[in-house]
Amino acid sequence: MSHDNSSPDFLQHHFHDVDQQYETAKLGMWAFILTEVLTFGGLFVAYVVYRSWYPEMFVGANLLLDVNKGLLNTIVLITSSLTMVLAVWAIQQKKQKLSLFMLIATFLFAFMFLGIKYLEYSHKFEVGQLPGEYYSYMGPEIAHLNNPHIFFSIYFIMTGLHGLHVAIGMGLIAWLIYATAKGNLHSKYYTPMEMIGIFWHLVDLIWIYLFPLFYLI
Amino acid sequence: MAENQKQNYLTHPKGIMSWLLTLDHKRIGLMYLLGGIIFFFLGGLLALGMRLELAAPGNDFMSNETYNNVYTLHGAIMIFLFIIPAIPGALGNMLLPLMLGAKDVAFPRLNLASFYIYTLGALFVVYTIISGGVDTGWTFYTPYSTTSTSNVIPMTMGIFIIGFSSILTGLNFIATIHKMRIPGLTWYKLPLFVWALYGTSLVQITATPVIAITMVLLILERLLGIGIFDPALGGDPVLYQHFFWFYSHPAVYIMILPAFGIISEIIPVHSRKKIWGYKFIAFSTLSIAFIGFLVWGHHMFTSGQSVFSQIVFSFITYFVGIPTGVKIFSWILTMYKGQVSFTPPMLYALSFLFLFTIGGLTGIFLGAVALDIHLHDTYFVVAHFHYVMQGGTIIAFLGGLHHWWPKTMGTMYNQTVASICCLGVFLGFNGTFFPQFLLGLRGMPRRYATYDPQYAELHNYSSFWSGILGLSIFIAIMNLLWSLRKSNKLDPGTNPWGAMTLEWTHTSSPPHPHNFEKDPVLEHGPYDYDKVVVEPTFKK
Questions:
Q1: How many domains does chain B have?
Q2: Can you give the pTM of this predicted structure?
Q3: What is the ipTM score, two decimals?
Q4: Is B191 part of a structural domain of the chain?
Q5: What percent of chain B has pLDDT over 70?
Q6: Cα separation of B296 and B243, whole Å?
Q7: What is the DSSP letter of B294?
Q8: Do A49 and B236 touch (CB under 8 A)?
Q9: What's the CATH number where B416 sits?
Q10: Tell me: the pLDDT tens digits for A87-119?
Q11: How many helices (H) and strands (E) does chain B have?
């Protein structure tokens, strides 16, 4: 029973107006981001606990990771965050095509990230630097250290969960590409793009913590 | 117009698919209610099975292994499948948008999704039961849970999945409360049930992710031996307890805060008096939600933490008593010089005040480190827990069910039968659990199928009354269901208790499919019994 004369088709029936719908989506998304932070928070606590239990082992084991690939992935992911912002900016400016281009770029960067991650993982699998009981690597750099399997457990769980988020993000961005190409998203209604953008920045932000914690220190 | 008035969400639209794919919060609420009641029944049967075994010393009906399975499943089902989802999922879903004057929750599709996620998690639990059960206790403590040969993985997987349902419901409610209120319905004009749901939702979205990731780590520990919780692999089993209680203590407030909300609605309505200390009750909800995050260590006084941590956790634990006391006294002062009518919902609310106070006070015993060293893992803990969870939450849930039944279903149950059942629940509950305080003080440990004959008398007494308790709850629910027969329809304008919140004053019973026929306009606060007269109306 809204007194609004214009009731656009993207307005869901239970909202009074477009503003209310937008504000609600945004609040919901931020609440969701909070839950994501806490999910990873549990794992960060595990990291801190075991780093303080086995400080030498952590310092020794992180040398086994490939810093160059990690750095490259950091650059790739930060760039993808930029293209994501530009996609949202472009659609606000009614630059539909530019927005579409930026979304595709974001998707490709995400794909690249997972590709590099795949190369890293497969190398670790080959040499037996695996989580938990499957750990078998006994190289000279690590032979004198206790429980290196715990480092790799935490490494695989945290980067694996992060990788899962990248994959889910790719699915969402693919849907955005489809919706933008079809014209369902436009300068008057781009809420899903902005929300998925927030999610994508979170994925980026988590990696920005993971990279130094595992590769650098 | 007359046709239109008869339309309600129960009958419109029709067909099974219109229920399974509904986006209507009221129908989703009813589906949650059905799911919750089924698991309540199942968990209750397991409890009665335990009491039967414990009626006499020795293994009379069950082997020790069976008994381990039964108490684990009882705990896990009651907590994860009934108490946590029941009040927010059923009553919260049903009432929140109505109380706000909204057409629906903020994200109706997400709401339906969280119901199906709950169902999926429940299927995992059912699978666990069919495939032989799990024997670790509902807390899944490591290292036993990483070495037990029972079905730990499907069970914890189920809990992991149900966690998402809980998170999404909380998220949905927060967005709804912030953004879906009608104009003029400011924070201090909200019914206190809404405040309670808000506090609950905050805890749900901040605590539940931690249990989710903990369950994942536990599953990975069993599958890959990741060495995080398993001491044999260099891990720390106490870390598991920290993770677990970081969620599960706040989860206690996920379970009890909505119950506080229900009591805050029932007492002023059935006393026909403005609630005493509205802002105190509202903010005590938020402070309980906050303090609840800082006390998890009191579950671990005997599992290896420093004396300093013990003292700090014990000290903070006492703080929970302050906002809780504020609530209890406010409710009592609300009744003072009110027109108290002893309706079934009010009888449940009064039982709640009595039982929850005992539960809360015995919590202070357990919060003291020195006493806890003696009392931990005894029946004293079992009794305390049940006084809070059953005497508190489930009693409030039953009270809420009786309070809003005419609103949601449009029928009135037999009030005499309901009152007798409430008395039966009250007596049966005390008869079952009060002896367990004494058993605990005398040293009877929890989680044993057999015991020394010196405990036989109290155990026998407890088992006898548990039968009365079970029977009373069963009849109470049957009484509600029996009211649904066709001849029993109430007039859509019915407001049997003379309540003044929007769900009673601005929509029919049962409500219209879109909640309100026209946008409601707020005329008064939720408890303005001193300013406005809303007469109880009750006709067939």
A1: 1
A2: 0.94
A3: 0.92
A4: yes
A5: 99
A6: 9
A7: G
A8: yes
A9: 1.20.210.10
A10: 999 999 999 999 999 999 999 999 999 999 999
A11: 20, 0
The verdict on a CB contact (< 8 Å) between B234 and A147 is: yes
Select from A84, A188, A73, A79 the least CA-distant residue to A121: A73
Is the C-alpha dihedral spanning B186, B190, B196, B198 positive or negative?
negative
Task: Write down the pLDDT at residue B6.
Answer: 63
Domains plus CATH for chain A?
19-216 (1.20.120.80)
Residue B420, Cβ density class (10 Å: 0-12 exposed, 13-18 middle, ≥19 buried): middle
Using alpha carbons, select from A43, A212, A204 the residue that is nearest to residue A131. Answer: A43
How much is the mean pLDDT over chain B? 94
Q: What is the pLDDT of residue A6?
A: 59
Task: Decide if A14 and B210 are in contact by the 8 Å CB cutoff.
Answer: no
Put simply, whether A182 touches B (Cβ < 8 Å) is no
How many CB atoms sit inside 10 A of residue A170's CB? 19
Q: Report the pLDDT value the prediction gives residue B304, as an integer from 0 to 100.
A: 83
Query: Residue B451: what are its φ and ψ, rounded to 5°?
Result: -155, 170
**Within a domain: B23:** yes
Q: Write the pLDDT tens digit of every residue in B30-50.
A: 999 999 999 999 999 999 999
C-alpha B296/C-alpha B247 separation (Å) is 8
Query: Cβ contact (<8 Å) for A50 and B104?
Result: no
Q: What's phi and psi for A186, nearest 5 deg?
A: -155, -175
Which residue in the set B108, B225, B228 is minimally distant from A133, CB to CB?
Answer: B225
* Any domain includes B169: yes
Does B3 map to a domain?
Answer: no
Chain B, 306 to 335: residues with Cβ < 8 Å from chain A are none
A136/B contact by beta carbon, under 8 A: no
Per-residue confidence (pLDDT) for residue B4, from 0 to 100: 47
Comparing B3-12, B28-37, B134-143, which segment has the lowest mean pLDDT? B3-12
Domain of residue B408 covers: 11-505
| B175 contact A CB<8A | yes
Omega within 30 of 0 (cis) for the link into B57: no
Over residues A127-137, the mean pLDDT reads 89
Residue B114, min C-alpha distance to chain A (Å): 14
